[in-house]
Amino acid sequence: SRATLTALQSQREFQLVEQSVDADPALHSQYTDHVPVLLLDGQVIAFWTVAAAQVLAALDSPVGPMEVPLI
């Protein structure tokens, strides 16, 4: 997941922010069964497997933000 996102940073400008599900009780209760989970503007766009095409489509959407947390 991290490798895919890092490679995509050469194609699109975005900031990758990683957070540990195990370190945050709220994240743990919400996402523990879906790690890794990728959120874009607080919306889940991928979990378990992060596909480059899926990430690019989300980033190219009209409201595509510049910060992508990988939890």
Annotate the secondary structure layout.
Layout: H1 2-8, E1 15-18, H2 25-31, E2 37-40, E3 43-47, H3 52-59, E4 67-70
Parallel strand pairs: 1-4
Antiparallel strand pairs: 2-3
Description:
- The protein is α+β, with helices and mostly antiparallel strands and 71 residues long.
- It contains three helices and four strands.
- A two-stranded parallel ribbon has the order 1-4.
- The chain is globular and about 35 Å long.
- The termini are close together.
- The model has no long low-confidence stretch (mean pLDDT 85).
Uncertain parts: none
Strand order of the largest sheet: 1-4
Q: What composes the largest sheet?
A: 2 strands, parallel
What structural class do helix, strand and pairing data support? alpha+beta
N-end to C-end Cα span: 10 Å
Strand share of the residues? 15-25%
Radius of gyration: 12 Å
**N to C succession of SSEs:** HEHEEHE
Mean pLDDT: 85
Please give the share of residues in helix: 25-40%
3D shape: globular
Q: Give me the number of helical elements.
A: 3
Total strand count, please? 4
